[in-house]
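Why do we care about 3D structure at all? Because function follows from shape, and shape follows, mostly, from sequence. That is the central idea of this module. The next example makes it concrete: a single protein chain, its amino acid sequence, and then its structure expressed as tokens.
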Amino acid sequence: MKKRALISVSDKRGIIEFAKGLVEKNFEVVSTGGTYSLLKENGVDVIGISQVTNFPEVLGGRVKTLHPHVHGGLLAIRSNPEHMKTLEELEILPIDLVAVNLYPFQSVIEKPDCTFDEAIENIDIGGPTMVRASAKNHKFVTIVVEPTDYYRILEELDTGEIRLETREELAAKAFRHTAAYDALISSYLTQEEFPEKLTLTYNKKQELRYGENPHQKAALYEELLPNNGIVNAKQIHGKELSYNNMGDADVALEMVKEFSQPACVAIKHMNPCGVGIGENALQAYQRAYDADPVSIFGGIVSFNREVDGESARKLLEIFLEVIIAPSYTKEALELLEEKKNLRLLIADTSQKNSGNQLTSIGGGLLIQEDDKGVFNPDTLTVPTKRKPTKEEEEIAKFAWIVAKYVKSNAIVIAKDNRTLGIGPGQTNRVGAAKIALEGAGEEAKGAVLASDAFFPMPDTVEAAAKAGISVIIQPGGSIKDELSIAACDEHNIAMIFTGMRHFRH
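And the structure:
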């Protein structure tokens, strides 16, 4: 007795060859709609679904497989006499293999001109039902949702039956397939910012060599819909990116997008160690390098301008893990590619990645909006007697952008369009200030100090004054703001309140 295969696919890759292979292995092929026409045109002996259901496809194809002659054939437990007796009485033939993938909802909604009605029409109903039914009954039915699995199925059929282990594996994949499909539709339709149930779906892009440490396994997943984050940057040279590389590169890319002027950001352990802006990429890099020539070694650098040959020669003077830029000149590529392990990425730096930030915790997930703002020009105030000059105000804004990307408690010292010292991730603000001021050294005189959060006490001001800081920029909002203001007035320091905090953990 011939076995029966049901084929209904939107992704037609390899389906003709697969169907012909099944026919050669004594399968009877049943198909629907466009798949039926394609197989028929290519010489496959195929039966239309209406010949199985004895009912026409109706409602413009909305209803064609939702029928007992289909789902009875899928869900019958072959070892159950009652089930098999029912099939016989109702003249339902068992279906042994199903190749189904779903209406292309994702590719439809990605189109700029996609309408809501068009999206709704591309929500598959019969397909997921067949997939789930087949996967549920995988002890007897093989479900195939990925064209990449066609060859292995034919190969196993050459040896006789498809193994139970294979059917179990394909069933799990099938449920992941429908779960991801439903999650994407749910996301598209959901209006609430934080709905009562959160269903996320990602595609595995690659397995990584290891995680944060060599004993930890890791993989990289990407969102289904394209975005301009680091996951979608194009690697054009160098060895595979590591888990730590990806984390650092994410910070480097998102941070360099904050600047309209040519900028260079150097990242080490997810903290900026040097940031510079200039007239061009080379000048920006030189300033970022000068900020901390020690920490930048083995780090990741990002640019928001094309990297040219002159910049490339400078970059080659030290060991770097990754370089990110919107483009490279031919000369720059020829030079940089001489280092076979140096990873070169091309990324869109024109627009910040949008979305929410997700952080896993034991037994759950924290989710929040991205920290999109930097400061609101309308809320900038200067509560001190001394007011910053226009030049001081510009460098203060530069330092404030950098502070946004430094782990809390964070202090940044800046002057002459570059950072001088950065104090990241300390348990108290004075400790962060001491690290940043020590890094700046004598150059701290006349520089700007930025703090990601307000001063609960004037001790940070006192440390800044001792080092010769001329301007402080911080959120303000402490009940003891007056003490810090008075300390600034005493030392002739201008202080800017931004009205916006930038904790980063």
